[in-house]
Amino acid sequence: MAVLKILAVNSGSSSFKLGLFETADGSVKSVWQSRGEWHGNHEKAAEVLGPMLEPVRNGIDAVGHRIVHGGPGLFGTTRLSPETRAQIERAGEVDPLHSKLELAAIDAVSALLDPDVPQYAVFDTAFFATLEPRAYVYPLPYDWCGQGIRRYGFHGTSHQYVSLRASEMLGNPSALRLITCHLGNGASLAAVRDGKAIDTTMGFTPLEGLMMGTRSGTVDPAILPYVMRTRGYSAVDVERILNEESGLKGISGVSGDMRKVLRARDAGNVRARLAIDMFVHRLAREMGGMLASLGGLDALVFTAGIGENTPEVRRRAAEAFGFLGARIDAGRNESPEGDCDLAAEDSKVRLLLVHTREEEEIAREVGKAVG
Description:
CATH class of the largest domain: Alpha Beta
Strand content: 15-25%
Helix content: 40-55%
Strand order of the largest sheet: 3-2-1-4-6-5
Structural class: alpha/beta
Number of domains: 2
CATH architecture of the largest domain: 2-Layer Sandwich
CATH topology of the largest domain: Nucleotidyltransferase, domain 5
Number of helices: 15
Radius of gyration: 21 Å
Number of strands: 12
Largest sheet: 6 strands, mixed
């Protein structure tokens, strides 16, 4: 099978990652990586990306873009066309920040590369296309679901990669029940059975579920009309507060960055202590929901910024599953090396740390689509 050179573009709210991969017969090899910051300059994305792509722009066979939301009509990896771009733009009404940046990156790459190079959208929601109606339909008027108001799930590119990697680490068993924990500034869980997602914490938008860096996660929906009536908040005000002024930042008053909140807690900041305790409590509670959906657990998998770099959160999350026989090895947890099993020898649940590689998963998906 011919070797394909695939450029993976992962556009985030403040930064972006680029990776060039060689794919052949399902294998993926990284040959170049780069990372940059938008600095509020996404409107001139071609000027930002151009110098970075200069060393590798010749010889690219295909491009894959991570797209957070494709709406109700786009789940699987899809070749970009004017119609596909328009659908992504419409889905941006639900997630305008990410959509704006993703479309800017698509247009920039289109301007920088030969127009014959095919580009593909790899949707974060695709991994959750396997959810059954009982998991994705909200208990709202039923016709709302037909209008696109349903659980989509996000961080799917990461959840898909780490679940595949976890299976490899455990010897590729034929049946495997995983809870994958993508814990970063944005955070979500997925219940994965036999490689397929059956439940997740994020929903119609990336706001539902866990407490996050600046996002509230799930709250009583009646709070929103209440503060709009009694405090004069507009819908725009509420949306901003829920997404930018809540979570770790809103409770601690310090930051949405877990590292800074931990330092403040250790210096005696009471609100920072509460923020961390709440984060862990709500993480354990949502993990319990994923456990119920799976009906058992073989491994708990930690990934992303907090999941990969915060031993305390991993330890406290594992302790919440002590009733299942989960036991973490304190030494390995404090000083992990690469992708590894943090579980103690007598643990009945494997506790895996997997470094997420979303760009690699994007390249793998595009390789399959091109092939």
